[in-house]
Design a protein that fits this description.
Layout (H helix, E strand, L loop, with lengths): L1 H18 L6 H11 L5 H26 L17 H8 L7 H4 L16 E2 L18 H18 L7 H7 L13 H11 L2 E2 L21 E3 L3 E5 L4 H11 L2 E5 L4 H4 L6 E11 L2 E7 L11 E2 L21 E5 L11
Antiparallel strand pairs: 1-6, 2-3, 4-9, 5-6, 5-9, 6-7, 7-8
Length: 337
């Protein structure tokens, strides 16, 4: 009898769930699945559809409030629409913030640099590779690290060479990184410095999967680094000055909130590439690694003013600080693979 009751309850829940679907969204759901290549088993589609509908309602409510002046940014449905927050966090985000002690021994950059100009964008100067996609893998830390080094490589050689995130994922575990399950740009930099180099994306392509074997070859190495420094936490003026003086900077954010997941116009690492002002509102330009369907073609113009933006909301450097890469002129050499 108990077994029969359980079965009836489960079936009732399943039927109730299906009846709860909003069939006015059928065509929208179909188009979204086609756009993002989503396929489900017959038993799982109903559950994924319900999660998607709940996220759809959340986005609609937020955008209505944005039209009323309650927010300064809009949200939009993207590839994460069928994921619960916990699934999204486990699949896409990196490790939790490192402790303050880990950075206590790092040299802190001197912020005494001339006043920064009103706008800056390293993309326009050729320092930034196209937006990449980490896939269903928590490897954001590797993309943040390669982005910083790619900028420094261009600064020294005028060659913009996409570097290998998979190289870092496969080979920096001894430094505390954990592949698709999280890591830190600082530890990636440590690996590159001690290892003496990193391969290009062309010779060591990205697979979005963990591997137990490091396939790095020094013969194919195209860049290396000497070290890195930390910027004073919470100091936007210093971040601006460092961005101009150094190049694109590895940053960390708290990307756990649903509003970040569906952002349209420090457990996640990205790359700060510039800043500016729009209608009096200041913003940062940050390159993400979730493909071009997220944000503004894969970039996040996060604001600088609290209550007007997502930048302070996500505490980009209050949570885990900002580090920049200092390359070695001697070691940084571009070689044709």
């Amino acid at each position: 009898m108990e077994r029969r009751v359980v079965v009836l309850i489960v079936c009732a829940v399943g039927v109730s769930s299906l009846h709860a679907l909003d069939h006015t969204l059928d065509s929208v759901w179909k188009d979204w699945k086609s756009l993002h290549g989503k396929e489900y088993t017959q038993g799982s589609e109903g559950q994924r559809r319900m999660i998607w509908e709940e996220n759809h309602r959340f986005i609609q409510r937020h955008n209505m409030e944005e039209a009323q002046g309650k927010h300064s940014y809009r949200l939009g449905m993207n590839q994460f629409g069928d994921l619960m927050d916990a699934e999204y966090q486990e699949m896409m985000l990196c490790s939790e913030d490192t402790s303050q002690e880990e950075f206590s021994s790092l040299p802190v950059w001197n912020c005494s640099v001339p006043k920064a100009p009103a706008r800056w964008d390293w993309r326009q100067k050729g320092y930034v590779t196209p937006v990449k996609n980490q896939g269903k893998c928590g490897s954001c830390w590797a993309f943040s690290a390669t982005g910083a080094l790619e900028g420094q490589m261009f600064k020294k050689t005028r060659q913009l060479v996409p570097l290998s995130e998979q190289n870092l994922m496969d080979c920096s575990r001894d430094y505390g990184n954990n592949g698709c399950h999280g890591g830190f740009p600082t530890r990636a930099f440590d690996y590159i410095a001690v290892n003496g180099g990193i391969e290009s994306e062309k010779t060591y392509p990205y697979t979005a999967k963990d591997s137990s074997r490091c396939k790095y070859s020094k013969r194919r190495s195209v860049a290396s680094c000497k070290g890195y420094q930390e910027l004073p936490r919470g100091n936007e003026r210093c971040l601006k000055n460092a961005l101009i003086a150094v190049g694109p900077i590895a940053v960390s954010v708290n990307a756990s909130l649903t509003t970040f997941k569906f952002y349209k116009s420090a457990n996640h690492a990205m790359l700060a590439v510039g800043y500016g002002t729009n209608c009096g509102a200041k913003f940062w330009i940050v390159k993400n690694s979730w493909g071009t369907c997220w944000g503004d073609e894969g970039l996040y113009p996060g604001g600088q003013r609290q209550r007007q933006s997502m930048w302070n909301w996500y505490s980009l450097y209050l949570s885990s600080g900002v580090r920049f890469l200092r390359t070695s002129k001697k070691l940084l050499q571009y070689q044709n693979p």
